[in-house]
Amino acid sequence: MIYTLTTNPSIDYIMRFDSFVDGATIRAISTEKYAGGKGIMVSKILRNLGNDPINIGFVGGFTGQFIKDKLRELGIREEFTKIKGDSRINAKLKYDKETEINAEGPHIDGEEIERFFEKIKEIGKDDLLVISGSLPKSLDKDFYKQVIKKAKCDFTIDIANKEVLSYLGYKPILIKPNKEELGNIFERDIDSFDEMVTYAKKLVGLGAENVIVSLGKEGSIFVDKDCVYRAKAIDGKLVNSVGAGDSMVGGFVHGIREGLTKKDAYKLAVACGTATAFSPDIGSKEKIYEILKKVEVSEIGN
């Protein structure tokens, strides 16, 4: 079983504009509402691939009920811990650029946290836990470490800053920074391709089993202890950057659980991330496998 953890899920309220002017009254040409949060995004792609993940985390209020209902409509299982506060709403403004306005999220109290940890006890050692996204301010900064210790199963972790370094000793099976996040982790500018490979290898040396670094228009790289692969970017129109990285995580995890080689799991990850980038929401199974035929991966050394 694959569990995805989203501690701070949201309604993603997408507003599309012909143009955007700061300080003016602007009418959206269309709006959409989705269940959002990095773990939820991973669950969506896993479901599209034929997996049956379970979402865990915290939801509350009318916004939390919307999130639960949307997942149910998609046939995705959820076992969220109910809280008193309202789950957040994040605004995604799309015009000739993309602007995201993310809310802070609800307060989560001690009793709610204890009920969540009771749920963690149900995770078995043969299960896999996908951990991703920011923590609500009311949770301890080491909350994810407490989860890892209690779950005692394989896990992936997606954190965008240097805090991820403190998790590498727990041996995550995957971390997936983008180019900017890789620089944030090591607190330096990383510009050249060779530097990206060098610092991805450092992450492996510190304990990560596998590392994927997404590079936008430059494609991506995969690094483990034995090899380095590079995938070219697929030509197409960027429709939606939200969830593309999470889709890569889901694709790789699904591939590994299905017994694919790491190279083929990486190719599937690339196809999943690209399919989402080219779609209004998470990439469909048909779109993923259409793109998979175009994915080119080359080994560039070790």
Describe this structure as you would to a colleague.
The chain is an alpha/beta fold and 302 residues long. It folds into 2 domains: 1-158, Ribokinase (UDP-N-acetylmuramoyl-L-alanine:D-glutamate ligase, 3-Layer(aba) Sandwich), CATH 3.40.1190.20; 173-301, Ribokinase (UDP-N-acetylmuramoyl-L-alanine:D-glutamate ligase, 3-Layer(aba) Sandwich). Helix content is 34%, strand content 23%. The protein is built from 9 helices and 14 strands. The strands form 3 sheets. Strands 1, 4, 5, 6, 9 and 10 form a 6-stranded parallel β-sheet that branches. Strands 3-2-7-8 form a 4-stranded mixed β-sheet. Strands 11-12-13-14 form a 4-stranded antiparallel β-sheet. α1 packs across α7 and α7 (244-257) packs antiparallel against α8. It is globular. 42% of the residues are buried. The mean pLDDT is 93. One of its GO terms (molecular function) is ATP binding. This is Tagatose-6-phosphate kinase. Belongs to the carbohydrate kinase pfkB family.
Question: What keywords describe this structure?
Answer:
302 residues; alpha/beta; UDP-N-acetylmuramoyl-L-alanine:D-glutamate ligase; 2 domains; six-stranded parallel beta sheet; four-stranded mixed beta sheet; 14 strands; 34% helix; globular; lactose metabolism; ATP-binding; transferase
